[in-house]
Amino acid sequence: MSDVIMEISIPLDEDGFLEMECDFCKSRFMLKKDVYESEENLSFFCPICGLPNHTNTFFCPEVLEKAQQKVINYMYDEMDRVLGKTIRNINKSGFIKMSMNKPHKEPEVELYVPVDNYETVHKTCCEVDVKVRTIDKEIGIYCPICGGSAL
Hints:
This protein has helices spanning 33-37, 61-93, 134-139, and strands spanning 17-21, 28-32, 43-45, 52-54, 119-123, 128-132. The radius of gyration is 22 Å and the shape is elongated. It is an alpha+beta fold and 151 residues long. Strand 3 and strand 4 form a beta hairpin.
């Protein structure tokens, strides 16, 4: 059995920021694409609640639904390919006749466009920009890289 690699293009805002969501507090924020993709960052701190988690847990639910949809559609294609071949071979024998209803693939929905209701905050401790909601900016945010103080 071989590995299958699927890619999903996650939309960025006009400044190159990627929208993310904390798995714990469900707050949304944005990080630069290159900060997210950096090999140095194995985990991030949520800028809102300050709790750390692995980088791959900060995807928005819409992105996860899109990934699940792609995997299900791939599975349906593989089932049709493998089982269809087997059924044709069985039907050639003449002893048994089989048929299969092809599963209905889900139409792939386009991902959202990130809304522009965030404000940019520069955290000097790690020289990183974070986009957060105005209320979060006023309260104070944590650094997503080192977890530094919210104030």
